[in-house]
Amino acid sequence: DVDVAGVIAQRAHGGRHERGVRDALPEGLEYLGRVPPRDDLEIPDRHLGLHLGTEAPLEPGVLDEVAERIRADRLLDLARRPPRPDPRADADPGSSKTDKRVAVARDEAFRFCYPATIERLRERAEVIPFAPTAGDDLPDCDGVYLPGGYPELHTEALADSPAIRQIGTAAADGLPVLGECGGLMALSESLTTADGDTHQMAGVLPADVRMHDRYQALDHVELRARRGALTADSGSRLRGHEFHYSSTDAAADARFAFDVERGDGIDDGRDGLTEYVTLGTYCHVHPDSGAFDAFVDSL
């Protein structure tokens, strides 16, 4: 459960509007201030969401003015309260720390990674970040995680990336690789942009990916494993979400790990392209779904 302690009203005026928000809150939920509606607080959007903070920074003076309307002292007091006990603390010993090393792509092309996912991986393994688009080599590791992001905006850098080529070779040699959405795209044979430019990717998964001008899927997702996979035992369920502007043309003999019980997946009610010990999904799985524990356990 999410422990909500307070609320900051977004795009809220003062006066009667602010009083209405304050009065509407249930007992035990604190009002911590408001962010006023201002044109200079707008963050530009694009496909898949907003520009990242480093791409569209807000003026410090504007942020200072907004901060005056936030009860920062009370916000910090609430943040310092001891958290509720984590039920995972009493989990079975099988979920303890291992000596495995997981290489996680973290750069401009792979930005869609929940902090809770990294925290869960760090609870089980050593996390080694690397930046494929910056020319990094693949680190020495026992497994690779390629999260979602904007590979379509960095196709040339990925096509020239030593790490992407090394992932292709290592995957063929049996290195476990997990790719989600953008990671699936980078693991494919090729990626064609919305402008029609095609670039070679890692070539691990037997599929070609094409970008579109409109989104192809947006939904909560439930998957059932049709066989044992990198992130799930046969018959088990995973939950997550999908949001992407690409489509994937998989080979006729491609193998899939999951049946889609809710959502779209990759193709014909299926998700989770598998090849060697590599898995690529459109679904971003929930950090507490057990998927990342299964991934680490498979290394």
Automatic annotation (TrEMBL):
Domain CobB/CobQ-like glutamine amidotransferase: 101-290
Residue spans crossing the bilayer: none
Alphabetical list of InterPro entries matching this protein: CbiA/CobB_synth (IPR004484), Class_I_gatase-like (IPR029062), GATase_3 (IPR011698)
Keyword Zinc applies: no
Keywords: Cobalamin biosynthesis, Glutamine amidotransferase
UniProt-listed GO biological process terms: cobalamin biosynthetic process
SUPFAM superfamilies reported for this sequence: Class I glutamine amidotransferase-like (SSF52317)
Start and end residues of each stretch annotated as Disordered: 77-101
Keyword rRNA-binding listed: no
PANTHER family registered for this protein in UniProt: COBYRINATE A,C-DIAMIDE SYNTHASE
Protein known as: Cobyrinic acid a,c-diamide synthase
Biological source species: Halobellus rarus
Source species taxonomy: Archaea, Methanobacteriati, Methanobacteriota, Stenosarchaea group, Halobacteria
